[in-house]
Amino acid sequence: MPLKADTITKDYLSDAAVFADVFNYYIHDGEQVICPEQLEERDPTEIALPYGADGAAVPVQKFRDAQKLFTAMTDGNLEYVLYGIEAQAEIHYAAAVKNNLYDAIEYAGQVEEAARSHRRAMKQAKEQKGDASAAGLGKPNSGEFLSGFWKSDKLVPSVTVMLYFSPDAWDGPLSLFDMMDVKDPKIFSFLDNYHVRLIAPAQMADEEIMKFQSSLREVMLFIKYSKDRDNLSRILETNEKRFREVERRAADVIETITHTGLKYDESEEVVDVCQAIQEMRKESERDGELKKAKEAAGNFYNLGVDVEKIAQGVGYAVETVKEWLGLE
Question: For the chain, what is the mean pLDDT?
Fold first, then answer.
């Protein structure tokens, strides 16, 4: 039984090379700034405790399709930048709300983690020195104590990008404001907007898709033209070398999303998509020829033509033609 599209795409996007490629495209215009080796796997299950103390808080649990931590060296110090990603096979008309919630929950989780970190540090210092301030930790003021987030603490930026795995154009709202029916522009001045950062192949020029360096390039190109046979043939021919060496997980995404009918050995690590397309079309032609032969045999039989002559005319064995005609 084939895996669901969301399972296939999530598995594909969990690859560090593909994940880095998404953000190198979206943030750095295709420049290879983020290296896969710099990405640290994150648990895609997020649990944030945004209200109250540990004993009183109610967990809020959400799931990201993939989440990793990107680290970069600047001025001799490590900076941690959190990148999130969402895989979408169907249009989500409330994506702006969903992604905004994800980012908010991520920030709430960071605040809670900072609070836990401070509590652990002060507890350890008190046990070792008898006084946290004596260990050089200092005493939090009332605001720091209440929030658990100290004045010197900083949030790690969260960036969420949504990939729309479909040959169709995205027609959903791309911001919170797009989801509102507000006539007075003054009202907007008192609201904070949130924008969906979307990658949708149908709405991308080929030159933009070519900025991807991983197999995501072939995935996006194939999906974009999956309903356009002539342009798909052109893309396969123009990028033949890369399409003859598509990693298996990328081929799985292509087949799951487009339902093209690609056939390949699932044990193979690399798939020759060009060859798979050729074999698929040959099989389709054979099926078409067989259908025509069956129809011709039936028509001739209804006209009273001898079965042996029909078999000779359509080029199949007598026994086969008899089977078609229900004579055996």
Answer: 83
Does the pLDDT value for residue 60 go beyond 70? Answer: no
Evaluated on CA atoms 24, 25, 26, 27, the torsion sign reads positive
Question: Using 50, 70 and 90 to split pLDDT, how confident is the model at 54?
Answer: very low
Q: Is residue 17 predicted with pLDDT exceeding 80?
A: yes
Nearest to 22 by CA among 187, 297, 294, 215: 215
Closest CA to 123 of 135, 108, 111: 135
Nearest to 209 by CA among 8, 30, 2, 27: 30
For residues 87 and 65, the answer to whether their CB atoms sit within 8 Å is yes
Give tens-digit pLDDT for 181-204. 998 989 999 999 999 999 999 999
Q: pTM for the full model?
A: 0.77
* Closest-CA residue to 31 (of 42, 43, 23): 23
* Beta strand pairing call for 197-199 and 158-164: parallel
The sign of the dihedral angle between the CA atoms of 238, 244, 250, 252 is positive
Other C-beta atoms closer than 10 Å to the C-beta of 53 total 10
What does DSSP say about strands 246-247 and 270-271: parallel, antiparallel, or unpaired? Answer: antiparallel
13: amino acid identity, one letter? L
